[in-house]
Design brief:
The chain is α+β, with helices and mostly antiparallel strands. It has seven helices and eight strands; from the N terminus they run E-E-E-H-E-E-H-H-H-E-E-E-H-H-H. The strands form two sheets. The chain has a five-stranded mixed barrel with strand order 1-2-3-5-4. The mean pLDDT is 92.
């Protein structure tokens, strides 16, 4: 069988684990091949060219080969041009990585997710609240993965009304309600559809709704980085 070789592929490092004393197994987000698992031979050796460039949240160009589920990384180049998130923004960036590893199947190409990830990492380095960047990326991943509910029409295919209140049903979409603990304003749904929450109330409701949708999409399994972020917010 001919070994496929992919050269100069835009990528980000999502995760790495040790493999033997000198190597690493990488989880890469690539633009044209989606999530790719790759063996980086010798990457742990002092002086390795790979060791110097395999940094999270930095744009790379990688070359890999092989036809198995575990490719072999044969080259990686740091592209540069992006500042790395710091502090709370760094924890948020690790959350993005975990979200992708849990929701994205391997080797399914999602160029929009790749571009959205790059934009989200940049946004996490900029001043101001980070919530909007997180919501934009979460809903991008949900939409591209095919599990996002329609934010502009209710379960009866009627347009969402900004002044209305809605409850999300996992198997049915949004239904109009008179109120209740799970009710979300139509304006919040339309803000999410437009990628911009325009009020503090909209941001709070968007966070609550997004958590519910992600919880359902992940089969109820918790995200480790979200728990850490929640604990920090309580301090």
């Amino acid at each position: 069988m001919k070994r496929e070789r992919v050269a100069d592929q835009p990528a980000f490092l999502l995760h790495s684990v040790p493999y033997s004393e000198t190597s690493l197994v990488l989880d890469l987000l690539t633009r044209d091949y989606g999530r790719v698992a790759a063996l980086a031979k010798g990457a742990k050796r002092r002086g390795s060219a790979l060791r110097a460039v395999l940094m999270p949240f930095q744009p790379l160009r990688v070359t890999f080969s092989g036809n198995s589920e575990l490719r072999t990384l044969t080259g990686a180049e740091w592209v540069g041009g992006m500042a790395a998130p710091r502090g709370y923004g760094l924890l948020c960036a690790f959350y993005l990585n975990e979200l992708l590893m849990r929701l994205m199947a391997r080797e399914d190409a999602y160029p929009a997710i790749f571009d959205g990830y790059r934009d989200a990492v940049v946004a996490l380095t900029e001043p101001g609240p980070l919530e909007d960047a997180l919501r934009r990326f979460e809903w991008l991943v949900l939409r591209e993965s095919g599990v996002a509910p329609d934010l502009e029409r209710d379960a009866d295919n009627r347009p969402i009304q900004p002044g209305g209140q809605y409850q999300w049903l996992p198997e049915g979409g949004f239904i109009a309600v008179a109120g209740g603990p799970d009710a979300v304003l139509g304006a919040t749904l339309l803000d999410l559809a437009g990628n911009a929450c325009r009020s503090d109330q909209s941001r709070q409701q968007a966070k609550y709704l997004t958590r519910r949708v992600l919880h359902h999409s992940l089969g109820g399994a918790p995200l480790n980085t979200r728990r850490i972020l929640r604990d920090l917010q309580r301090l």
